[in-house]
Structures are given as C-alpha cells and as structure tokens.
Amino acid sequence: MNAVEIDNLTYTYPGASQPTLNDISLQIAQGDFLAVVGNNGCGKSTLCKVLNGLIPHFITGTFRGAVRVGGLNTLESDVGVLAQKVGYVYQDFENQIVRPTVLDDASYSCLNYAFPDYLERGRAALAQCGLEGREEEYVWQLSGGQTHLLALAGAVSLSPDILILDEPIAQLDPMHADRIYDVLQTLNQQHGKTIIVIEHHTEYIADYCKHVLLMKDGRVQWLLPTGEALQRVEELESCNIFPPQVTQAAYRLRESGRLPANVPLPTTVNQGKTAFSSLVYHAPAVPDAPPAPPEDAAVSFRNVSLSYRSVKGEPRTVFSGLDLTIRQGERVALIGSNGAGKSTLMKMMVGLLRPQNGTVSLFGSPIGEKKAEDLSRQISLVYQNPEEMFIKDSIHADIAYAMQVRGLPDWQDRTHALLERFRLTPLQDRDGRLMSGGQMRRASLAIGVALEPGILLLDEPTANLDIATRREIMGVLEDMKDIIQTAVIATHDMQLVCQWADRIIVLRGGQVVADGSRDEIFSRQDLVDLVGIRPPEIFSMARELTPHALCYTVDDFTNCFLEA
C-alpha cells in the first residue's frame, strides 16, 4: 500500500513565470523512511507542502494533477483533515511552539480537535519523542534539541500516518541530531509511521533512511534505495549534494586505481572498514612548529559569573567564575552542545549581556567603561539568523548604514568595495530578507566587517545551509584573513572547525572543559564522549583503520592511506 500517490503534478507560484514542480508522478510506500534531496530551489519544500494541503489551500497558485495521501485527495480534503494524516515539522520549528508548558503544547492540536483524551494523547506523544517526565516544564527551559522534539510531539499527538521534517538537524549539535533521528527511526520501525525528511547531511541519510528521492529543476530524477542512491557520486555532486565522506574517499580511491572498480562504494564507517582494509596509513610529513601564540589579549574574562532569571525555580547559572583569554590574531572556534553557553559568551563580548560578577575586557579595558560607538568599532557580532542584520530595504543600504551614520568620509567607496568583495554587487538593490541562505550569509558578513572591527564574532555562520553553500562560506571566511585580525566562531559544524580554526575552546555547562588545537581536542575520545561533539566522518573512518591517524578532510585521507 502506498502512503503517497502523485499523478502528473504541476504547480506554479502566483506571479512566477515557470512552474516550481513540473509534471511529477510519484509513489511513496507506506512505512518508508525517505530522504528528499536536491539543490536550493529545486522544489523539495514545495513538494512537501503539497502533501499536507498548504498548497494550494493556503498558498495559492496554478495547480494541476492529483495528489493522494493516506487515500485522501488533497484537493478535496481541507488542511484540518489532512493534518491528521500528515504531520509536518518545519525548518523554523520554534514557530510551531505556541503554549507555555511542554504538555500544554504537545496536546494543543488535539484540544483544537476537541478530542476528549487530548492530555493522554499529548503524554503519549511526549513519551514517543523522548520527553517523558518534562510535562510540566516551561518550553523556554528546553534546549534546542528538546524544543525540536516538542514540535515533533505536537505533530505526533494527532497520530498521523506520515511525518514530514524539513531540515530536522540543521541547528542541532551532533548529540541532539542523533537523538532526533533515533526517535524518527523508532516511530518508523515500531509505530509504522512513514517518515519523509528534507536533508543535506548524507551521513544521516546513509545511517537511517531506506530510500532517497533526488529532485532537480522541479522534477523527480529518481527514487532509489539509499545504498544505490549514494553510489551516484557524480550525479549527486552535480546537484550540490555531497555523499558521505567515506563514499567520497572511496570514489576517489577507485578512480585512482587503489580500490577495485567492481566493488560497491561504502556509505558508512562500518562498510568502510571492509572496503579500505587493504590500505596502509602513511603519516604525513611533520609540519614546521607553529609560531608561538601572541601574548596581547583581545578579549579577557576574569572571574565572570552570569545567571538568567527563571520564571519558576532558581536562576539558571550559565557561567560561574569563568577565566578565559582570547589573544589577538587567533582564529577561535567555540564548540559544545546546545545550551553550553557559546552564544551567551559572545553576547558578553559585545556588551549585550553584563555579568553579575567579574570583568569582561576588550583590548585591556573593561567593556562596561566603553561607549557603544567605540565598542562597535572594535568588535562586531554576526548573528546566527542573518535576517536580523537587515534593517534597510536593500543590501547596499544595510552595508553602508553603520559607516554612513558615523560620518566616515569614504563610506560610499567602502560600500562598493564590500559589495564587490562578497560578490553582492548584482544583488545590491535586493532586500536582504528575500535572498537565498548563502546570499544572506555573505551579506551579513559584509555588514559585520563594514567598520573593520579588530574582532569579528560569528554565531553559527553555516547553520541551515546546504553543503555547497557551507563550502562557499568557508571560502569567504578564509579570504577575510587580511581584514579581520581576530575571529571567534560558535558552531556545530566540525568540518568548519577542523579546516578553519587554530584554537578550539570546548564548553560544557558553562565551563571550559578543553582548550587546544584540533589534534589535542579530537584525539581525546573521553572528551568527544563527554561533550557529545563529533569529529568529521572521515576522521572517525581513519581512526577505525589506524588508531593514531589524524585525517580531517577527504584529501587528507586519500593522501595518507595508500596501497600496501
């Protein structure tokens, strides 16, 4: 039996000259765990919004063809009826949290349907989603991963046969990402739910999904079993979808003749242990010792304590007696699970938060003694959500704003130079909030460096981006070395950490539990287990083959693992 049946679907948004979905015919089997992949703008999210009736009942346009979910024709069934067949967790899942306490929110949709057992349904959904025991907590007490699970519980409470999640782990640390997918796997295998995920992280697709659907230019290219789909390396990469690093490495080794041509490519670390068993690790030449770190402090925390007030219970302590120094010229990555204190630390650096005790200093002077105007010239924070950086109706005006209001004589020339540097000149008249994710990131970085601050802070600069756009942003950061002397990034993106940072600070519960180079951090399995961080997959693959191997990229792996 099929959970979804689509026949000759074509859909065009109002005012658009071309259809976003073009003559799609598709069947999704009941009980499938399907990953929908494709580059930005290919129609993935549009296709999923057709399944729950948002298109065309709320988002109008030209709709042709037939769509049936759970036996219901979406054109003949309203959204309220379809919601009991198809649960949807959006990429911006925080907007689905509407009630103050956990049980209240999980049962709210059932209350709207006047189910007499709405509380029991809410409790059952929380148990299925791993939130049992948190029923009476306020929603703002939850971590990011727990909040995502609560949004999922709200959809599960209506007992739909199909669950759709758009980028379910885009803003989560690896520990919470694993938990989300473990819950989805349980719902799929033990409760018979059909799971559909829009996903860029192919290592999770390899571990959890049964089938992969590739979309391109509004059409379905193919729907294949996961193991077969991830073998199509060139086709996937042409659509900016990058197979797991293990698969990429095997493909390169096969192309160079170091692996047999007739053997399937591995898609997981376990498969890689067999596929790469004939290769031998050759340690790379030891590089020259890095220069001694500079002694001048850019930012220093001395005995800093900070707590947030709580609606009920004791205030939540984030930092207690923190001592930390970030030196001039360093490229620092702050890592740790959701709620570890990374964003709070950055907000203290720019004066948005003031500690209850202790001193935060910038270039040797306490931040509390600095004027806001002076502070903004010395340090700049680029927010996790780039749209929060846009206050004008064009990118040109947003980039120029800080320089213009401060009366810098060459603000016009500097604005044009920044537009050129960040490849934004053709987009300069566009409203930043209406651009793609990668374009918004580039624009927010241009705004952040407009005053040429000595220190640049970046909060999750690659969150919510596909792999190709993440690579683009990493290149932009590398190109900015001549503009920014000191940079600090808070991120869950371990590939970014390994390729960009020269110092890694690991936070857990408001404490610095480790501080060092990438080799010092990722070679400690006890630290990886304690904090829930995850090194790049290719690093784990190399360590499985040779425990002392240190390979952070696919290039590292293919250069170091050679034929015996």
- Average residue-wise pLDDT: 89
Largest sheet: 6 strands, mixed
**Beta-strand residue percentage:** 15-25%
- Unreliable stretches covering 5 or more consecutive residues: none
Helical content (DSSP H or I, runs of 4+): 25-40%
Q: Strand order within the widest sheet?
A: 6-7-8-3-9-10
Structural class: alpha/beta
Query: Gap between N and C termini, in Å?
Result: 51 Å
Shape field: globular
Total beta-strand segments: 22
Count of separate DSSP helical elements: 24
Work out the radius of gyration: 25 Å
Keywords:
6-stranded mixed sheet; globular; 564 residues; alpha/beta
Give the gist of this structure.
The protein is of the alpha/beta class and about 575 residues long.
Describe the structure.
The chain is of the alpha/beta class. Helices cover 35% and strands 23% of the residues. It has a six-stranded mixed beta sheet with strand order 6-7-8-3-9-10, sandwiched between helices. A six-stranded mixed beta sheet has the order 17-18-19-14-20-21, sandwiched between helices. The chain has a four-stranded antiparallel beta sheet with strand order 2-1-4-5, with helices on one face. β12 and β13 form a beta hairpin. α6 packs across α7 and α7 packs parallel to α8. The longest helix has 16 residues. The chain is globular and about 70 Å long.
